[in-house]
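Appendix B. One record, verbatim.
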Amino acid sequence: MDKVGVGFIGSGFVSEIHAESFSRMHNAEIRAVASPTPGNAEGFAQRHGIPKHFTEYQELLELPEIDMVVLALPNYLHCRACCDAARAKKHIVCEKPLCTTMAEADEMIDTCRAEGVKLMYAEELCFTPKYVRAKELCDSGALGRLFRLKQCEKHDGPHMPWFWDVDLSGGGVTLDMGCHAFEYFRWMLGKPKVKSVWADMDIFVHEDKTRGDDDSLIVVEFEGGARGVAEESWAKPGGMDDRIELYGSEGVILCDLLHGSAFQTYSKQGYDYAVEKAGSTAGWSFTMYEEAWNYGFPQEMQHFVDCVLNDTEPLETGEDAREVMRIIFAAYESAGTGKRIEWPYEPPKDKTPIQMWEK
């Protein structure tokens, strides 16, 4: 194999980003897309020059020219699609979060292992160029011993209606965006074991849309003493804000992912696009360029393609995603009980994260 044949299952916002990423590659190509909504897959295929499109993803999985699938589906559909793809002998890239229950996580991991296919977890912060460079500095000793990491991701809410429905998503902003922070902390620190999780969360702005949390603060303590502090919000207007802070015994890194890769624009009438989740472009705005590259999406997908071509272990695996799920569950349980959750900890198999918080 000298080129990986890729199939997309899902054709929404994140699939558009991933299509841009694959368009940059010489050793992979998108050969089919599936989406159950009539017309969506066809329109996506036309926009991106994809030869085949389906409303049923099972038809995509039957294609011999597909080697790897990208799952860009609502959270509650991840497990079934992943296991169907594994049984069709397709390698899998699964968007975050992995799924909605621990039973699903175990089924996905076990099925992929039994079928001999790779389950690769799409956590782009581990491929974000700025954050990769920050990790290189930390690994070189430039900051001494890391004792505190902070990651903030904030905007005014998700693109699609299903995110707001906790019966489909499994949770609110802690599930949707806290997952980024938790794996970022693990990756930065060399993936140590967790010692404890404490969280506070509430619904401050979007009571009319969701039963899920729309703003949260989570502290994750790791073996070795480092603390990761996650601030996540669906309650911040004005577009995406994504930042990290790293504190060590010998130095500090403060990194603004988006504003440092943007230019300032003033427009009376507004214009087509400034940055993800920007509600308006009229007046002053920060205008992004090369947005997908700055987030790390092309680098992430190129890594997964290389893993398939060379049969190597991915940087981010299903097992990593399962650890993230454990932290997510602990955060919701901590917020629901008002207690710090100590390790060893194993969440209930059949509950969703939001059920650990709801009274």
